[in-house]
Amino acid sequence: MDSNMCQTSKSFDSETAEADASYEEENEHEIATAEFGEEEELKPVDSRPNPQLWITRNSSHADFDDDLENINISNFFHRVDSDQIIYQSKKRRLKLVGKYVMGDLLGEGSYGKVKEMLDSETLCRRAVKILKQRKLRRIPNGEQNVQREIKLLRKLDHKNVIKLFDELHNYEKQKMYLIMEFCVGSLQTMLDSTPDKKFPLWQAHDYFLQLIEGLEYLHSMRIIHKDIKPGNLLLSLENQLKISDLGVAETIDLFAKDDTCFIGQGSPAFQPPEIANGLEFFPGFKVDIWSSGVTLYNITTGRYPFEGDNIYRLFESIGKGVFTIPPEIQEPLRDLLLGMLEKDPYARFSLQRIKRHTWCTRQPSPEGLPKVPVPPLRGDMWHSLTVLPYLIEHYYDEPLEDASEDDGSQHEYITERQLNEMDERRKQRDRTFVVAENSNGNAQSSSSSSKKSSRWKKTISCMSFKTIPGCKQS
Amino acid sequence: MPLFGKSTKGPAEVVKALKEAVNSLEKGDKKAEKAQEDVSKNLVLIKNMLYGTSDAEPQADIIVAQLAQELYNSNLLLLLIQNLNRIDFEGKKDVAQVFNNILRRQIGTRSPTVEYICTKPEILFTLMTGYEHQEIALNCGTMLRECARYEALAKIMLYSDDFYNFFRYVEVSTFDIASDAFSTFKELLTRHKVLCADFLETNYDKVFSHYQRLLNSENYVTRRQSLKLLGELLLDRHNFTVMTRYISNPENLKLMMNMLKERSRNIQFEAFHVFKVFVANPNKPKPILDILLRNQEKLVDFLMRFHTDRAEDEQFNDEKAYLIRQIKELKPIQGH
Questions:
Q1: 3-class SS of residue B324
Q2: Chain B residues within 8 Å of chain A (Cβ atoms)
Q3: What protein family does this chain belong to (chain B) (predicted)?
Q4: Is A227 one of the annotated active-site residues of the chain?
Q5: Which of B108, B236, B282 comes nearest A255 by C-beta?
Q6: C-alpha distance from A255 to closest chain B C-alpha (Å)
Q7: Is B262 found in the same domain as B164?
Q8: Residues of chain A contacting B108 with CB distance shorter than 8 Å
Q9: A113: which strand partners?
């Protein structure tokens, strides 16, 4: 099925905007270092004397100019054949936003990037959603949806709903930082990493119960999520499910007699028949029941109950409400799916009924298929703290850099041969250093991922080079 | 028997030995010291069967099933709880651990221990009175909260007369016990939404006359916590009927208005979140409207100066502005 069918309708138009925006982003930051040995990916900040300095974007260029005269000319014009040049890896520079230390990219949503962060006061791991006003404006209702989401998230506090801890603004850069709970991935990314696009039943059971808990809380707060789908269900490091993305959620009035809703937003494939048929009004809470039903169907079978080549066909099929459940799905799950995907919203199961359903109350046996893990982030299956290397770099930079001179890496460019030599040396050291760094194994195969393994000890990194002498920030 | 060696005793023997030891502990004869020792030893044995040790896995399901069956048949769970104050410090913790583990046991969709306790509700009532004894209050608290997770057990507790003792327990002078009692109390009132809503509706008068006392408590923590919980209960969609009933009573409005003027800013703030519901109500009964009208100007004036330093809290300011507008626009019902 068209992947768009699983996207929230709000983000339809964002796809293209996203593509070119992120391209600009690339240009801004990820400059290969062949021309200038010291262009940095991240804003160079020497945050020791003034941690807030990062806001002034142009400081690096100023420094560069200042230091030109100090450059060791012979070093600068060191002759290397072009095919032998290896680009310098990203320079890790500590970046602070408020009291938060920036880490690596976790993912990209329709509104902007999501990066890891560390709260420097509580040392809690966080994720930050970086929203750019420029991008937001291009999305229909973008700014409105974000404001609504922030307002909602602030008053919510439940273990199965994503938490918003803080909200920072940088008016100069027109950026907004939403500091949220740290999560390792969504159910969708996990499904995508498997061949069958489904979970073993016992794992699906675990997630589904948590979804129901979170949903019950949202409904008790009079919130209809309207966009429940595997892509919006995140997992914490402790495997706790977090309902996220309340961008199209609706709060019903405190004094409303019932949960009648008039607007249907959300991802087409997860919409109930009453919305697909364009009904004028419908009971809101039952919308979430339906999409949770589609979600359950999806994570247990790897398929969707309703499909269509385009949105019209899809809605036609949903509107009829006729679907089949693969024969491998047995009772009582069959009955639960039928109850949640009941065409008539009034006859559809309530949360209470779902919670009491035999499939939910029965503890499933963890036998059968093995657990589907959260896919590794850039080769790191343990999702280690990505902020740490920046901190190490920042605080232990000087002595380690000196030590690396023995490595023969005083050149700012490096050849294949030198790389191999260093790789060899690094392997030897790895044997002597017993460091519990889990990504070491795959790091040795490719140089691109080696930066992950080298985060603990700068000296053994094959990608750590001394920058041009004198160009170093003091 | 070797002190640290592997026990060869089966579940039936351990349960029997433990029961005898608890019985003699209860009698308090001169062999009490020996009994105390036996109780601790056998408790550890049972605990290890359920949880395993650093070098032994927990026992196989069949053994655990036997153990559970023995515990039910011998009525030992109740006996242990009744004599909890006589058991030594570590033993008390072991009882709680054993109890909670056995409680969580599931066979298919059944929870046999939950079913067992339903037939022996004394266990729950004994646990609840545990809050009256300082030395066992917290152990009973952990067991009670584990029980409260099961709807059937929560229902028994809510609908029992003993539930109203909680209004006393949450106010006791020992802070840790009062807090523990409050968290159990809150769990019982919020965990199973539909059950709780039904309970509050059917027992509205009794519960809220008791609740009123918490809100008027001398104890600052009690006042603040109970006010916060009240706000949560009223704003929960499941308790819609309860809310409409609560906000139609002028006495409740008066109480909230007085709490808005409390010395503590935290209490003022929590009171604001209940007060706003009275004002936002589109169908205010006459007595409520009368009170608001009588204080119209004073309220507007008061709210204008209310927590003005919370500038960063957008939601609060929006709500405050909304309330001020609402109160300003209040008009007597036509024909009066």
A1: helix
A2: 106, 108-109, 193-194, 235-238, 277, 280-283, 314-315
A3: Belongs to the Mo25 family.
A4: yes
A5: B282
A6: 7
A7: no
A8: 362-363
A9: A108, A130
CB-CB neighbors (< 8 A) of A252 in chain B: 237
Check residue A68 and give its pLDDT. Answer: 53
Percent of chain B topping pLDDT 70: 96
Taking an 8 Å cut-off on Cβ atoms, the answer to whether B237 and A352 are in contact is no
- Among all residues of chain B, which has the CA nearest to that of A255? B281
Same domain, A266 and A342: yes
Please check whether residue A212 lies inside any domain of the structure: yes
Same domain, A104 and A129: yes
Look up the domain containing B276 and give its range. 194-335
- Do A167 and A206 fall into the same domain? no
Of B191, B212, B228, the position where a domain reaches its end is: B191
Same domain, A8 and A146: yes
pLDDT tens-place string over residues B41-65? 999 999 999 998 888 888 888 889 9
pLDDT band for position A88 (50/70/90)?
Answer: low
Q: Which chain A residue has the Cα nearest residue B192?
A: A352
B210 and B179, same structural domain? no
pLDDT(B269) > 90? yes
CB half-sphere exposure, A248, CA atoms < 13 A: 22
**In this model, does residue A410 exceed pLDDT 90?**
no
Contacts of B314 in chain A (CB under 8 A): 151
Instruction: Specify the pLDDT at position A134.
Output: 84
Is residue A441 in a domain? no
